[in-house]
């Protein structure tokens, strides 16, 4: 079952460190113990738990390097013409699950009156976009499967502006590497240009035929059926085109950056 | 490539070096994949049961995913190596066939009565043939369903073959349970016939 990331994804840092110190203490020689435990990080402990490898940092670095290698492999596997399956309306998951790194009551309420999407970086036209202007652009709609990194999936119906159309309209350098997103809930993430230009990548303004509600990311969400849920930013405030990888909220903590499906 | 002897002189290598290396790489890859997979499962359990956190690998979901998508290269690379050598050398057919349900049943009954002979280690009995063939096939199913879970859009043919993303989750889980069963049985058999262990290390 879906659940807020606050419960599911992160262990309680304090208790894990305490546990790890308790487990590791007897194995270490007295003189070296203090220095080793002093430098023990939560990430290192996370990698250690469940196995007896005793150099957490090196293991962590190796795993991070393999994750970056997997980013490249996924970029290579990604077929810009391969479409995600679409579904009939009867298959939509109701209610569509809320999912974020906070509870549903804490989802930000963005005021439409004062809102304009910031566009910056490697684009010709850097002016802001009011919601009315985005709604006036050609709209498309699709019913696709949202797959969460946790494993569960749900089918939903999103509508909005094809992101590649928007990028062309603002004169984005589509030869650039990345597009970064900053959100009203302080979430941030970034995607590769190939996925940004994919025909099913939408700057979603509606959900199930209605204005995108607050819990699903008002005023807009980038909806990509070719990416896992955490790569689909909600409550987007600003986007920028860049050649240096901007990372992301979960990605910087260890989730795979490419996160494609 | 294969040092597999067609006849078996007394000093013959029962398990050629490539097989032993492949076996122990698998013995490393499978617990890494299974331990991290259990932690990933726990993030959104398919059934009412969760895996106890103590036996999982990775600490949190992000760590478990890193382990899983690192160890997959070891498991897949080793698996391809094993299958290639087995198929090209014809070892697969020499060692694992013929095998029949009746033969498996007969050998299983002998084994349970303690009367199954183990004096020619170069020759697998019917139960071993069935079990090792099953484990190989099950690992292939795990890899295929895993590819669908990882890349359900890119591997569309495989996804449709398995009945979609959610069905692939179920297939991946069931295949994991079956592999865990194989590993448990395998370890029990090694405990019962311990001389097979040094043989898998030294080869003879």
From TrEMBL, chain A:
Coiled coil: none annotated. Residues 107-250 form the Oxidoreductase molybdopterin-binding domain. InterPro entries: OxRdtase_Mopterin-bd_dom, OxRdtase_Mopterin-bd_sf, TAT_signal. Pfam families: Oxidored_molyb. It comes from the Bacteria. Gene3D superfamilies: Oxidoreductase, molybdopterin-binding domain. This is Molybdopterin-binding protein.
UniProtKB/TrEMBL annotation, chain B:
It comes from the Bacteria. The keyword Cell membrane applies. It is found in: Cell membrane. The chain crosses the membrane at residues 67-88, 130-150, 170-194. GO terms for biological process: respiratory electron transport chain. Pfam families: Ni_hydr_CYTB (PF01292). InterPro entries: Cyt_b561_bac/Ni-Hgenase, Di-haem_cyt_TM, Hydrogenase_cytochrome. One of its GO terms (cellular component) is plasma membrane. Keywords: Cell membrane, Membrane, Transmembrane, Transmembrane helix. Its main location: membrane. GO terms for molecular function: electron transfer activity; heme binding. It is a multi-pass membrane protein. Residues 14-203 form the Cytochrome b561 bacterial/Ni-hydrogenase domain. This is Cytochrome B. It comes from Telmatospirillum siberiense.
């Amino acid at each position: 079952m879906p659940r807020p990331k606050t419960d599911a994804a992160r262990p309680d840092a304090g208790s894990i460190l305490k546990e790890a110190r308790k487990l590791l203490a007897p194995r270490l020689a007295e003189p070296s113990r203090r220095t080793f435990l002093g430098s023990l990080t939560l990430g290192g402990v996370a990698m250690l738990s469940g196995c007896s490898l005793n150099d957490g940092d090196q293991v962590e670095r190796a795993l991070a390097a393999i994750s970056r290698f997997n980013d490249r492999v996924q970029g290579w596997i990604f077929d810009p013409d391969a479409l995600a399956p679409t579904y009939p309306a009867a298959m939509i998951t109701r209610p569509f699950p809320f999912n974020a790194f906070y509870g549903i009551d804490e989802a930000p309420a963005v005021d439409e009156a004062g809102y304009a999407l910031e566009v910056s970086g490697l684009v010709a036209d850097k002016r802001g976009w009011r919601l009315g202007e985005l709604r006036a652009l050609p709209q498309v709609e699709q019913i696709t499967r949202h797959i969460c990194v946790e494993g569960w999936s749900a089918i939903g119906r999103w509508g909005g502006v094809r992101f590649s159309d928007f990028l062309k309209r603002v004169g984005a350098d589509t030869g650039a590497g990345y597009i970064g997103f900053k959100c009203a809930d302080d979430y941030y993430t970034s995607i590769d240009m190939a996925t940004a230009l994919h025909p099913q990548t939408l700057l979603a303004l509606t959900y199930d035929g209605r204005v995108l509600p607050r819990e699903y990311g008002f005023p807009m969400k980038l909806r990509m059926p070719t990416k896992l849920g955490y790569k689909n930013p909600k409550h987007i405030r600003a986007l920028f085109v860049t050649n240096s990888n901007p990372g992301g909220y979960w990605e910087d903590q260890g989730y795979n950056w490419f996160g494609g499906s | 490539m294969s040092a597999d002897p067609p006849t078996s002189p007394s000093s013959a290598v029962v398990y050629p070096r490539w097989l032993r290396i492949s076996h122990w790489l698998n013995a490393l890859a499978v617990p890494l994949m299974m331990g991290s997979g259990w932690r990933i499962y726990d993030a959104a359990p398919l059934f009412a049961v969760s895996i106890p956190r103590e036996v999982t690998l990775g600490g949190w979901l992000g760590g478990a995913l890193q382990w899983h998508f690192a160890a997959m290269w070891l498991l897949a690379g080793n698996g391809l190596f094993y299958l290639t050598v087995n198929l090209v050398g014809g070892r697969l057919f020499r060692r694992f066939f013929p095998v029949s349900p009746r033969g498996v049943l007969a050998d299983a009954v002998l084994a349970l009565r303690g009367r199954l002979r183990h004096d020619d280690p170069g020759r697998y009995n019917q139960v071993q043939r069935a079990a090792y063939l099953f484990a190989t096939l099950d690992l292939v199913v795990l890899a295929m369903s895993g590819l669908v879970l990882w890349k359900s859009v890119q591997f569309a043919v495989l996804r449709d073959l398995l009945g979609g993303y959610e069905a692939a989750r179920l297939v991946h889980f069931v295949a994991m349970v079956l592999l865990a069963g194989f590993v448990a049985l395998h370890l029990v058999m090694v405990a019962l016939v311990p001389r097979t262990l040094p043989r898998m290390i030294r080869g003879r």
